[in-house]
Structure formats: C-alpha cells, structure tokens
Specification:
313 residues; alpha+beta; Ribosomal Protein S5, domain 2; Alpha-Beta Plaits; four-stranded antiparallel sheet; 9 helices; 12 strands; 41% helix; globular; binds (3R)-3-hydroxy-3-methyl-5-(phosphonooxy)pentanoic acid
Length: 313
C-alpha cells in the first residue's frame, strides 16, 4: 500500500513579452526541465518543510512564515475546503528562489497535487490553478498567472490578457543563468509603468514592435526553426533595457552569452536581478561550458518541459 504521494512541477522562463504583457501585449513562456518536487505523507499534524542542500526549514502549515508562507496559505485553503487534516509535506527545489523562474508557483502546484493525490482527491487543472493562484497573489498583488499555468500544463505557453494556451513546439535547448540577485516583481512592474507614464509614445512603439514578432516566433518554434526566436530575444532585450527593466549585471550576462557564441540572449522575467536566457546556435555544449565558467549558476535546459506529474510510492 502506497504511503507517500510525490508530485513534480516545472519552473518556467519567459521567452518574449514580459512587462509588455502586463499592458495588454502577448507573451511566450516555456516550462523548464528543472522544477520542484513535493512529497506528502499522513502525519499527526499539518506540517511543511523545505529542503535546500543541507538546509531544512520546517513549520506548521498554520503558522508558516517567510518563503513558506505562500504555499502554506494555498495548502491551508485546500485542506479546509476538503475537510482534510494530518499531512506532512516536504518540498525540494532545483530552482533558485526569487529569480523569476516560477519557483513559488512550482512549489504550490507540486504541493497541492501531492496532497490531493495522497487523499485520493481528483483535482481538475482549473481547481489546481485556483489554489496555486492563492499563493501567487500573496507573493505579488496582481500576478498574470503565467507561472502557475505553465507549471500545471508544461509546454510552450502563449498568454495575452485572459487568453492562455499551450502551443505546439519542437524541443530545443535553452540556457538559463541566475545573476545571483533576487528580483522584486512588484517593484519592477511599477518602474516600467512609470516609464510608460513618462514616455507613452515610446512605450507603445516598443510594445507593438515586440508584440509583432510573436506570430513569426510561434511559427518558427512549431517547425523547429530557431533563428527568428534568437533575433526576437535580442530585440526584446533592447526594448526591456529602454523601459528600465534590465540592469548592468543582466546586460553584461546577455552580452557575454552572445560573445561566447549563443545566437540570442535576453533578461527573462521582471528583471532588476533574476535571470537571463540564451539560445545556443547548435546542439553542442561548447558555448555553455564557456559561459558557465564565468557564471556558475547556469543550467542548459531541454525545453519545453512537461507539466506537473504525480505518483504514489
Ligand atoms: O515574476 P517574474 O520575474 O517571473 O516576472 C513576471 C513577468 C512580468 O511580466 C514582469 C509580470 C507578470 O505578472 O506578467
């Protein structure tokens, strides 16, 4: 008889359109092959713990604080709605925290999936999205929901206003590299919004220009033709720089990625810290090794990754 339920949910990277998506343009994101694993087992009380290397942080679900607070909040609501009690959840993440790679959404998606599976509750994707978004709203006021949607569904995801869909996409490799500086999404969204207020015309033109690239990038990804994505990433980085989302560290990482041979590179997510992504020219790892030698928090991911998976052990 199984004693544990385990769920694994992926992180995400935004390929194109961050910030502009907040103002009505489209964005494309992919699920990564790095993610969060949650293990749930029956216990006397409700507890949550997070394992990161040798560090373990534990708390009662009722009074979890800090980075455990959002996922604990989703779990509390889920347990309450289903009149459940007595579960211990252990979360192990491969995703750097507060780096714009969707670690908080992947934590809630995996934790809620594992708990519902442990208690034999069939949870629709829509319900799972609802519970995961409770945590996301706690992290920053008005989340677009990209992270939770990608973590649940996997694949290449198109987002515009209320539309979210998974699109066909041939597999490709993507460098994801963490600057080591945590980013603050709310702060960066306000910074970009104040650029829009100061320079409405420039903002509109940049937003339209980035948005106009999206259909060709989608067509390219469907056929496995990547140069259009590389060019769009380079252009998108310049636009994000102008609206104030990048910083010197990210710009330097983006430049260095191109210097060692990546075809395209850009910051990803809210910026002001967090990560960059880069697209290799061909399927060899030479440029990755060169890049990693200078920026060690780098992963060469196979994308698009799969959405959340759950099993009993
Ligand atoms: O939180 P991040 O780093 O994944 O950035 C979110 C992307 C934004 O477009 C800046 C905000 C949003 O909610 O879409």
């Amino acid at each position: 008889m199984p004693t544990h339920a385990v769920a694994r949910a992926p992180g995400k990277a935004i390929l194109l359109g961050e910030h502009f998506v907040v103002h009505g343009a489209s964005a494309l994101a992919v699920a990564l092959d790095i993610g969060v694993e949650a293990k749930a087992e029956r216990a006397e009380s409700n507890t949550i713990s997070s394992v990161s290397g040798k560090n373990v942080t534990s708390a009662k679900i009722e009074d979890a604080e800090g980075f455990l607070a959002p996922v604990a909040f989703s779990l509390r609501q889920f347990l309450k709605d289903h009149s459940l009690n007595g579960v211990a959840i252990k979360i192990t993440s491969e995703i750097p925290e507060s780096a714009g790679l969707g670690s908080s959404a992947a934590s809630s998606v995996s934790a809620i999936s594992a708990v519902s599976n442990l208690f034999g509750i069939e949870l629709s994707k829509k319900k799972l999205y609802h519970y995961s978004m409770l945590a996301e709203k706690m992290v920053h006021g008005k989340p677009s929901g990209i992270d939770a949607f990608v973590s649940i569904n996997g694949g290449l995801v198109y987002v515009r206003r209320k539309t979210r869909k998974v699109l066909p996409c041939r597999p490709f490799k993507l460098l994801v590299s963490y600057s080591g500086m945590q980013r603050n999404t709310g702060l960066m969204v306000s910074k970009v919004a104040s650029f829009k207020e100061r320079e409405p015309k420039s903002f509109r033109n940049l937003m339209r220009a980035v948005n106009a690239l999206v259909p060709d990038v989608i067509a390219g990804l469907q056929k496995g033709e990547l140069p259009i994505l590389a060019a769009a990433m380079n252009f998108n980085h310049e636009a994000l720089k102008i609206v104030g989302a990048s910083n010197e560290t990210l710009d330097e990482m983006v430049r260095y990625a191109r210097k060692v041979g990546f075809a395209g590179s850009k910051m990803t997510g809210a910026g002001g810290g967090g990560c960059i992504i880069a697209l290799p020219k061909q399927d060899n790892e030479e440029e990755f090794e060169k890049f990693k030698a200078i920026y060690p928090h780098s992963f060469l991911c196979n994308v698009p990754g799969e959405g959340v998976k759950c099993w009993l052990v």
